[in-house]
Amino acid sequence: MITLVRCVTAVCALGAALSALAACAPEATRAPLPAPSATAASSPTARPPTLAPGPAGLTPVFEHGPRARDKTVALTFDADMTSDQGPRAASGERFDNPGLVAALRELKVPATVFMTGRWAEQYPGQARAIGRDPLFEVANHSYSHHAFTDDCYGLPTVTEERMRADVERAYAAFRKVGVRDAMPYFRFPGGCYDRRALKALTPAGVTAVQWDVVSGDAFATDARAVAQEVLDGVRPGSVVVLHCTLSAAPTTERVVRRVVPELRGKGFRFVKVSELIGAARGRR
C-alpha cells in the first residue's frame, strides 16, 4: 500500500487537494509496491491481470496460458545481475544486451523483461527505455538475484525474513530510474521456490511467473541448437524463458532472429505475459 503523507504546507489548497497530496508524497516515504503508482491511480479495470492466491492464500504461480485458445506465445527475458557484480561491469563485462532489445523492436515482438533491481541501477537509461516502450513490460526478478530456496544452482540465498523486502527493493530501484509501470509479476531467481517462499511473498501481492519452455540460452554457444529447443517446445500459451545478459547468454539475439519468423510462419502471435495471464482469467 502507498502511505499518503498529509501535506501541511500552503500548497495544499482545497481546490487542488488530490494533486497536492500526490506531489507531496516523496518516494522515500512510500512503501515499495508491486504495482506502479501510475497503475494505482488508474481505474480498477486498468490494473494488470493477476491470479488469485493459491491454496492457503499462498502466492499464485503461473506457468503458461490457455492451451485451447489462439496460438499465442510469450517470450520472457531475465535481466540478471547480482549485488556484487558491479566491479565486473565496471571492467567491461556486459550484463546488458542492447542488440537483443533492438532486434525485438525491429521484429516488433512484444516481450516481458524480468529485471533485477541491481540491473536497473547498473543500466538506468536502458531500464527506463524498456519500461517506457509500449512493446515491453518490466517485471520483478528480485533485487540481487539471490535464491529464495537453498541449493539453487549455487546462488547465495535470501533469508525468509528478507524475501519480501528484496522484492520491494527491486520495485523501488525501478521507480528510482524511471520505470513507472513495473508489473506485479515476480520470477524467482533460478526458478527456485518452495511453500516457504510463496508464503513470504503473499503480502507483496505478486503473481509468480515461471515458464514451460526452457530455451537453454544461458552460457550456450550454439544459437541454432537453442533456437531448435524453443521451436520444439512451444505450444499455444507457452512462456519461454531466455536471458538479456550478453556475457552469460551471447547467442540470444541470434536465437530470437531465427525463432520469431519461424513461429510466425506457424501461426503464432507474440504477446506479453500480462496477456496470457488475462486470458487464463478469461480476460481478453
Largest sheet: 6 strands, parallel
Rg:
19 Å
> Count the helices. How many?
11
Return residue spans where pLDDT drops below 50 for at least 5 consecutive residues.
1-45
Describe the protein in words:
This protein is an alpha/beta fold and 284 residues long. The protein contains 11 helices and 9 strands.
Using brief descriptors, characterize the structure shown.
alpha/beta, single chain, 11 helices, 284 residues, disordered N terminus, 12% strand, globular, 3-stranded parallel sheet
Layout of strands and helices, then pairs:
Layout: H1 17-23, H2 37-40, E1 61-62, E2 72-79, H3 86-90, H4 98-107, E3 111-115, H5 117-122, H6 124-132, E4 136-140, H7 163-177, E5 185-186, H8 195-201, E6 207-209, E7 213-214, H9 223-233, E8 238-243, H10 252-265, E9 269-270, H11 273-280
Parallel strand pairs: 1-6, 2-3, 2-8, 2-9, 3-4, 5-6, 7-8
